[in-house]
Every structure is written in C-alpha cells, then in structure tokens.
Amino acid sequence: MALASRILSRSRQLYAGQIILQPENAVPVRFFAKEAAPPALKGDEMLKNIFLEVKKKFDTALGVLRKEKITIDPDDPAAVAQYAKVMKTVREKADLFSESQRIQYTIQTRTQGIPDARSYLLTLKEIRIKRGLTDDLGAESMMMDALEKVEKEIKKPLLRSDKKGMSLLMAEFDKINKKLGIKREDLPKYEEQLELKIAKAQLEELKKDALEAMETQKKREEFKDEEMVGVKSLDIRNFI
C-alpha cells in the first residue's frame, strides 16, 4: 500500500498541476444549486466550477491509466514509447496540454508586451532553463550572435515593432536553422522527440519513487524477510 499511495499521490500532483494551470478552466460550467440553498457568490461558484472540471479531468486520466499497461523501465526505448503513447491518450481524452503546448503557451504569456528582441531572447532562455530543457545545439548563442550582427547593422537596439529590422533577424535565423539542419516541416517530429525525452524523465522519476517506497516498506518488521521485486515487474494498474 505504501507504493500505491506514493504513486497515486504523485499522479494526483502531476495531473492537478497540469489541469489547474490551463486557461480553459477559467470558463465556468453551469452549476445548479439545491432549491433551498442560498445564492452562491461569484467567487465561490467559480471555485466550485474549477473543482468540478479538475475532478472530471482527473477521473478521465485515471480511467485511461487503469486500462493501459505501463512498464517502469526508462532504459527500454519500447517502454518509454509506450509510456509516451499512454500519456498522449490521457492528454487527448482529458483535454490537457502537451509539454510543447505548455511551453508555447508560457512563451506567449511571458513574452507578451516585451518590446525588444534582446529581452525576448533572454526570456526564452529563462523559460528553457526553468523547464529543464537543454540547448545541445548551441542555438541560443547563435541567435544572440545574429541579433548582435543585426543591431550593429541598424546601429540601435532592435525593437520587435521594427518590421525591417526583424526581417533581417528572421533571415539570420533561417541561416541558423539551415546550418543546424532544422526544417519547419519537421516540427511535428521535433515535438515527438521532445515528448519521448519527457516520457523518459518521468519514468525515471517513477522508478526512483517506486524504489524509495519499496525500501521504506522493506524496513517494516512484517516485510523484513521478503525479497524486493524488480521495478519493471510492477503493474501500476494494481495500485490505482
């Protein structure tokens, strides 16, 4: 039961965190109070509606997890791919953002109102770091170099409202993408690769939590003589 509680608790934290941060949950769902109940305050009604939406999405997510087999083996590409597939099904049925969609939404909200290109690029870097993403290709430094080149050419800081200057910068970015072999038409493939990286990281966290839970349980007197099972043999469906 210790492992079940740990995994279920972690699942709740993950899904509640994903759900409550999504903008669509600010749209109220019609709420019918009992006839004898006093009229609800607007704030109270909004909280109730958010709670009902969160519960609905959470129940939907658990419904998928009860049916689909997940192997806790972050070192097995097949297990990682299956976990990513299950999580995609969860997101589609529970109407949740994918990681790339959440990043896109974060960029849109965080960069709204930023007037200059330099602050924009620095904000993108901050978002990447907070998301735990790596810049293995060194694209950020290349983009900053491109900005330096454009600003040197126009002899002033580049504002995002400067259409001519931004066209120059986009042309430099196109050169960078070509150098790195990045094609706009391949964006779905890059998104899939990102989801697989995230799936692997999440499986590593689940494996760590499962091992910690089993180690804790093994210290209890009644389980002292029992052999600890392999994490890969665990079926999460039995703990939900």
TrEMBL record:
Keyword check for Coiled coil: yes
Which keywords accompany this UniProt record?
Coiled coil
Q: Which GO terms describe its biological process?
A: pollen development
InterPro entries documented for this protein? MGP1
Keyword hit for RNA-binding: no
Coiled coil stretches, renumbered: 189-220
List the PANTHER family hit by this protein, alphabetically. ATP SYNTHASE 24 KDA SUBUNIT, MITOCHONDRIAL-RELATED
Name of the featured protein: Probable ATP synthase 24 kDa subunit, mitochondrial
- The gene from which this protein is expressed is LOC104603256
